[in-house]
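Lab notes, practical 5.
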Amino acid sequence: MKRLLLFSLLLLASLKLAQALPAAEPLRLCMVGLVHGHAGGFLNRYLGRQDIRLVGIAEPDQDFLSYLIAVVRKEVKPSGLSSLENNLIVTEILDAARTSASTGKRVVLK
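Output from the prediction step:
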């Protein structure tokens, strides 16, 4: 979980840096593993941007890769662990964990 959080923070920092710098060349990104719900959201959000170029995807599960392609093309709606509802809950939990870690206090979710 710590690695996933660290990876997510590094990715967000890279994207913010890419927005702040004058971009002669697009930021080149490679995604490793697509089984996390945020992968589909990332692709939907950044695929159309001119300042970011997705140069590679590594996913050994070809069935999942086909599923994710269909989600990005809006041929199917994400469900289960990939659903928007699930990802909103995960985001709320991560926000509470960050608050708890920075303040040293317990955070109660409603």
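Observations recorded by the TA: The helical segments are 2-20, 37-46, 62-72, 84-103. The chain has a mean pLDDT of 75.
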